[in-house]
Write a structure and sequence with these properties.
8 strands; binds ligand LARABZUK; alpha/beta; TIM Barrel; 254 residues; tryptophan biosynthesis
């Protein structure tokens, strides 16, 4: 993980901050709400299974939205979100463990912890139903998946390429997120999910992440095999309930 990896400067800064962050004092133990079950229930209800993300800001966001995370969460669930994602990275995304803790206490849907977790001890920062593990940033992916599962987390293993998908599958990943955002240039390309998803086995739960804005984007990711869509900016920018509902109803016959 260094400049020779070709990361955007923002990624280098995020990783430097992540390396310095301590973990929790005590090992957590989670009784997790099933993310795959929540996605399947939404699908059976005729809703596009959206994981709506509470992201106050980001390296590609103009400005910052410091609305009450619980109010945002309740609006997203009212809009039909199957699950939520909460940023806990403070320095570049305006997130916090407290925000995740408060949101998880306020809703019944599964909550994903979205952060740049690099070390096992960082898993103990806060309980969540699922935790993001980014293949590209982890040398001991097998160990981190095992450590997450031992605590009761559902690991959402994030990839960007077919090679990273192979690493994720070899490490036993059952929940795989394909991030359409390129960490070198930070631009998004929805064809990333289409290309990588085509290489995934049928028994893996696939989440399309990033760059999903319109109802057609949602339908496009679903046609490509997405079992869930992780959406932040398009929901956070404006009315979160209406924005979520626009995506969760994208497959309802007009
Ligand atoms: O969102 C960013 O600007 C960003 C920049 C650098 C690394 C990661 C970043 N985002 C994390 C995510 O993966 C997204 O927050 C998530 O997939 C939602 O993406 P979007 O719907 O495009 O906001």
């Amino acid at each position: 993980m260094n400049a020779s990896e070709g990361y955007a400067p923002a990624i280098e800064s995020i990783l430097a901050a992540a390396r310095e962050r301590e973990g929790g004092d005590e090992r957590v133990s989670v009784d997790a709400r099933s993310l795959p079950a929540a996605l399947s229930t939404a699908d059976a209800d005729g809703r596009v299974p959206v994981i709506a993300e509470i992201k106050p800001t980001s390296p590609t966001t103009d400005g910052r939205r410091d609305a009450d995370p619980v109010a945002l969460a309740e609006a997203m669930v009212e809009g039909g979100a199957a699950a939520l994602s909460v940023l806990t990275e403070p320095a570049h995304f305006g997130g916090s463990p407290d925000a995740l803790r408060d949101v998880r206490a306020a809703v019944d849907v599964p909550v994903l912890r979205k952060d740049f977790v690099l070390e096992e001890a960082q898993l103990d920062t806060v309980e969540a139903d699922a935790v993001l593990l980014i293949v590209r940033f982890l040398d001991d992916l097998d160990g981190m998946i095992e450590a997450a599962r031992e605590r009761g987390f559902q690991p959402l293993v994030e990839v960007h390429t077919a090679a990273e998908l192979d690493r994720a599958l070899a490490a036993g990943a059952e929940l795989v997120g394909v991030n359409n955002r390129d960490l070198a240039r930070l631009d998004v390309d929805l064809s990333t999910f289409e290309q990588v998803a085509a290489e995934a086995p049928a028994d893996v739960t696939l989440i399309a992440e990033s760059g999903i804005g319109s109802s057609e984007d949602a339908r496009r990711m679903r046609r490509a095999g997405a079992d869930g869509l992780l959406v932040g900016s398009a929901i956070m920018d404006g009315d979160p309930e209406a924005n979520t509902r626009r995506l969760t109803t994208a497959e309802v016959e007009a």
